[in-house]
Amino acid sequence: MMKSPRLPLYMTMATFVLAYMLCIWEFPSMFSSRVVANLLTDNAFLGITAVGMTFVILTGGIDLSVGSVIAFTGVFLAVILRDTSIHPLVAFGMVLAITIAFGAAEGAIVHYLEMPAFIVTLAGMFLMRGLAYVLSTDSVPITHEFYDVLQSIYWKAPGGGRFRLIGGVMLLVFIGAMIVLHRTKFGKNVYALGGGVQTAQLMGVPIARTTILIYATSGGLAGLAGIVYSLYTSAGYSLSTVGVELDAIAAVVIGGTLLSGGTGFVAGTFFGILIMGLIQTYIVFDGTLSSWWTKIVIGVLLFTFIMLQKVLAWATTARRKPATEFAMRS
Amino acid sequence: MMGGTLRRIAPQLIILGVVILLNFIVFPGFFSIEFQNGRLFGNIIDVLNRGAPVALLATGMTLVIATKGIDLSVGAVMAIAGAVAASVVTAGGGWFLALLAALAAGLACGSWNGILVAVFRVQPIVATLVLMVAGRGIGQLITEGKIMTFNDPGLIHLGAGTILGLPTPVYIWVIMGGLITYVVRRTALGMLIESIGINETSSRLAGINSRVLLVAVYLVTGFCAALAGVVVAADIKGADANNAGLWMELDAILAVVIGGNSLLGGRFSIIASLLGALIIQSVNSVILLSGMPPEFNLVIKALLIIVILFIQSPAVQHAIYLFRASTPPHAPNENGAKNNQTAKESLS
Amino acid sequence: MSTTPEPVLQATGVSKFFPGAIALDDVSLSLYPGEVHALLGENGAGKSTLIKCLTGAYKRDAGTILLDGKEIDPRDPQGSLALGIGTVYQEVNLLSNMTVAENLFLGWQPMRHGMINNREMVKRSKEVLSGFGLDIDPSQLLSSYSIAIQQVVAIARAVELAGKVLILDEPTASLDREEIDLLFSVVRKLTERGLAVVFITHFLDQVFEISDRATILRNGRIVGTRELANATQTEIVTMMLGRQLEEAKKERGKAVIGETILELKNYGRRGTIEPFDMILHKGEVIGLAGLLGSGRSETAGVIFGSTPADQGTATLNGEAIKIDSPRSSIHLGFGLCPEDRKTDGIVGDLSVRENIILSLQARRGWTRPISRAKAEKIAEDYVKKLDIRLASLDMPIRLLSGGNQQKALLARWLATEPDILILDEPTRGIDVGAHAEIIELIQTLREQGMALIVASSELEELITYSSRIVVLRDRRQVKELQGDEISIGAIVRSIAEEGGAQL
């Protein structure tokens, strides 16, 4: 049997299908387009964030600042739309430029100052959350007709599910990320970096550019997630999306991406998001279960997938040894 | 020996001095201490008191980071420990039993992390992430999602009481920090921990039982986190599993980093980390006393980390090294160049 | 085939100075299209420095390099690759988390409509690799193939990208015979295409098997270049070693062998080393000889317990023992100086003093610390005894030179007063002075009644102090030489005979 890097991905997919079937078995009403549509809508911002996180983790890094970036984006948009007459589309452009530049700066610090991504993005997390506070400590509602227009776009599926714009944006981001990761040189450089920085450098991968681009991507996607979140909640609040970075990391890991970098798929992250959304939906349907079970179940899933990856790693090294032994004896 | 320690913590002392001076500038009454109702009041006392949880966490975190690890779960462990203490005390157990139960919970969490790291060889950041995510849920499970209040005077005393005029938490973190420093430096533990943090393979081949040491280090961190959790819960007379210790793991890591300890493991100083915790608390105090909106707290903290990290980053350190190496006229050129080589090698 | 008038690469008068040492002194080298040119010399002769100067990894201090008659000055390996010089190292420098095709084409993937054309990439990979005699599925992960195949993929990448000169830096060190055959057939195909190949290795038989010419380096200088068709192994070895060979032979003293201390029966570890028997006496040195990867270090590791044996029995002073970790063997009085000083030996940021007492402290346990004063005394003792040169006992050990680091590691073990000391390549990569001192130390320790096991690739050194020599090949013991049987010739023959049998 050949070692397949897709095995964890298949496991995640199987877990989702199995979990969804169990849910339907217990609550047949969960089998509806409404549930599916809500799954996409409710997790749109998290999904977009997790795509950026997948890129970062694939290179062996981590980005703790994404939750704060989302909050900052929301507050920034809310304040700008309240205090000025700038069109939301222009504001979107501005905030994306800021978040991309912010991510790029983080990447530059990680690369040029040779500091652990963990601590750099931790500082970034404080900075963005702080800037959000500085802009406003209150929840600022967003009322703009353009927002109403965007929020009213949906496709009503048979069965009553409303597939809204933001869910569509998330799907587009996932598809775009897959294309970038698998069909562009940049995408391959991401994997190369995760396989080993020194080797990648020897093979001619532009380390500095790739690292900076990666964190810029993560920052930009967090900005996009912030826009989506502001559409979702119609408000900007500096205390919102606390801990989203953890959820994003969890989704990436449950999706089968190795936290040490180099191995993983965006598609896995998508199913990771769906699994986490499914847990919440189940708890809502059940009605008696408390919300903290979400955290515990996600923790258990994290543990399971981490151990699964360990076992797979052991199995492959164990499998290779006898192979060389055989070659030597023959 | 003393001189060495002093030299080691000099940067932290200077930073602390500057921040305290800033405190004094924005609020001239910073140093005034009053004695009322058998208790000392004053901003200095507040810094020492409020710094307790981070100082406790930083004590354990220093050891974990020295082994090239990290413990993201300490905040969640605080929540669990607070919840356990509260539930024991509300169920009628005494404060001492509650404390013991909370500490036991902390040790259990520590051994979970330690076994994942040392036995299953899971990266520390990943291993402790599990408990970071699930721990708060477990805490809420214990308190059933409510803020579980209590009014046991013994337990409350641990967080809000005073001994000889000083708040109890001050004693707790000073004694804990002192005790652990004493133990690791008076035995060979400190050196052995540094050794596995610098090069685990070499250490194992030299006969060091790295597995046991790693588990022990996570146990200590769990213990410290549990103590911090009890202090925080006792202070607000209730266990709030949702918010207790929220993001405190990051403050603790920051304290360790400000203390000049490398995140890449190796040489460590608990005293420097404790000073780091006090620096963080003093910065909070400046912001509060200056009348600046507390919103700026995080921005300033972020800028502070960036500056400190910048100074400590290998690239800048290397530049400083080169600068220093080029200044003394008598330094043999060869040595300088050779050391550069080594410095570069150790970077790669 | 061997010499056409126009060299593809010509290096003239290349020199490289390191602080306090001349690594390369006026070295010249010509490479002709279609030749395999071996670069020979002992460790530290300057082979890898020369390569690094050619590829731009080091900045040379003097000399010119002409490629196709034009002067070049590559600044890094990337630059030299673009010019046409590709390098493949002993450790495969490819990405094991990516597929074979992705590795081959990283950075120059075939594109269509602005996107990577994966199908085309796999197709072309298959073509390229079949040109190297490999029929594998390039869409599989690189890590699912053996090291030899990975090595060929690395060569294929280097050749596809460079195409003029291919430098092979010890590519066969971790390969077995069949894999070497595969590699050599690839090299032959390349020379037929007109590529010039530089081949660096420690294995003389391989040199004669594949190379047309050989340039021999010693102490950073060229000793000479020979057509291998009319050269003998002895001639080459003499050029490599200089006069040392005869001197070394003279020095060999008689050992006074004491009683049996360690007896291993059917001792081994699956996949690491085939079961072997060994009897070690007090006051003797058993030398472990063999090529790299033959099982020398593995034998040392199994005895010491860093890779514990999973079969066989061990008796120490007549009592059955079980060694399952370095910790257990250290308690029994074993010590091991590992081959890779940097990754397995020193604890870089700890002081020299702490490094010296580390094992002693580990054995005493953490509750019984060695006091500062006592540690100082132990360290000072050994610094004096072994003549370790340092500025202060408090300096981090990583700042010491290789030889002094090695001596400090020896001190670490001597401080535990071991009964059995295992040394794996004790003289690798250290300066000449320290080299002689360590050999002397081994002899002194033996005379004092310690039992030693020494693994070394430097045969002339091994025969000076060993009372018995165990020859290994393919991870098993193939021969034991004693007394007058011991000579470099005999060792080389037993390695080679086995090799012959394998062919």
Automatic annotation (TrEMBL), chain A:
Membrane spanning residue stretches: 53-81, 88-109, 115-135, 163-181, 212-232, 292-312
Membrane keyword on record: yes
Keyword terms: Cell membrane, Membrane, Transmembrane, Transmembrane helix
InterPro entries hit by this protein: ABC_transp_permease (IPR001851)
Superkingdom: Bacteria
Subcellular locations according to the entry: Cell membrane
PANTHER family in alphabetical order: ABC TRANSPORTER PERMEASE PROTEIN YPHD-RELATED-RELATED (PTHR32196), INNER MEMBRANE ABC TRANSPORTER PERMEASE PROTEIN YJFF (PTHR32196:SF63)
NCBIfam families documented for this protein: PRK11618.1
Name of protein: Monosaccharide ABC transporter membrane protein, CUT2 family
Organism: Cohaesibacter marisflavi
UniProtKB/TrEMBL annotation, chain B:
InterPro entries in the record: ABC_transp_permease
Annotated Pfam families: BPD_transp_2
Topology of the protein relative to the lipid bilayer: Multi-pass membrane protein
GO cellular component, one term: plasma membrane
Spans through the membrane: 12-35, 47-65, 72-89, 95-118, 125-143, 155-184, 212-234, 271-292, 298-316
One function term, GO molecular function aspect: transmembrane transporter activity
Keywords linked to the UniProt accession: Cell membrane, Membrane, Transmembrane, Transmembrane helix
Subcellular localization(s) per the UniProt record: Cell membrane
Name recorded for this polypeptide: Monosaccharide ABC transporter membrane protein, CUT2 family
Species of provenance: Cohaesibacter marisflavi
From TrEMBL, chain C:
Subcellular location: Cell membrane
Name this polypeptide is given: Monosaccharide ABC transporter ATP-binding protein, CUT2 family
SUPFAM superfamilies: P-loop containing nucleoside triphosphate hydrolases
Species the sequence originates in: Cohaesibacter marisflavi
Alphabetized PROSITE patterns for the sequence: ABC_TRANSPORTER_1, ABC_TRANSPORTER_2
Cellular component, GO annotation: plasma membrane
Keywords assigned: ATP-binding, Cell membrane, Membrane, Nucleotide-binding, Repeat, Sugar transport, Translocase, Transport
Main location: membrane
Family, similarity comment: Belongs to the ABC transporter superfamily.
Domain of life: Bacteria
Domain ABC transporter: 9-244, 256-499
Membrane topology: Peripheral membrane protein
UniProt cross-references to Gene3D superfamilies, sorted A to Z: P-loop containing nucleotide triphosphate hydrolases
MF terms (GO), sorted A to Z: ATP binding; ATP hydrolysis activity
Matching PANTHER family: CARBOHYDRATE TRANSPORT ATP-BINDING PROTEIN MG119-RELATED, GALACTOFURANOSE TRANSPORTER ATP-BINDING PROTEIN YTFR
Chain coiled-coil ranges: none
